[in-house]
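User: Show me a protein chain along with its predicted structure.
Assistant: Here is one chain, sequence first, then structure tokens.
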Amino acid sequence: MNIIAVDDEKLALDGCISAVKKAKPEVEVDGFRSGAEALEFAKSYKPDIAFLDVEMRSMGGIELAHRLQEMNPSVNIIFVTGYSEYMKEAFSLYASGYIMKPVTVAKVTDALEHLRFPVKESGNYKLKVRTFGNFEVFDKEGIPVNFAYSRTKELLAVLIDANGAMRTFEQIMEDLWMDEDDAGSHSSYLRNLFADMQRVFAELDCSNALIRRRGAACIDRNYFMCDYFDYLSGRDVSQFAGEYMSQYSWAEMTLGRLMTLSDDD
């Protein structure tokens, strides 16, 4: 399920994205502040659902809805506005819903439960990973993934943080046990964590998501839908709000880099 939100007011856009993510935490949400950006994105990533502000500069939500429907007649349009007088025109486009601001989780949930066109889950990814805020892992159905050890989840976080690059076992242990002088003494425990991760990945039909070499490991990014990966690729910079894997102190270095990138935008 691919969802976009479009609003030229940053606060309103952030509020809409936040409400959608709380209503559907396992789903990707791409935010845009102009219709042109949204259309460019839609050429490559066909959205299933579009939350559109009606009144926007340069291209309003009604026109944008027409353009999106030309690309994909089965796109679910959900208009977001503070003005009820647009309701008749909106529904003349066979919109799926109409939300009056402010956007709330309850309103979004109701709209998503009454879509005009049913949405089938698609994509080749097997796991949905959220890094902005606390680190969380979900399967494709949005169910949290449970590992036998809490450290296994943190191990996956370390590999996600590496963005697909190989990390040596020494580097991994320095992150997982950064407060200990003898972090390297946990090599036997680390093997148990890898075995636990491989077991869970096998159950989720993504055994190849973990790549191991002699003394090193990484993940295959193709198996993951991840807000951090999308941010680095420039696909959706609106998701980052100053928090990254908040429960792990070793992630502060990456957080600093993300803050720098955010300041440059």
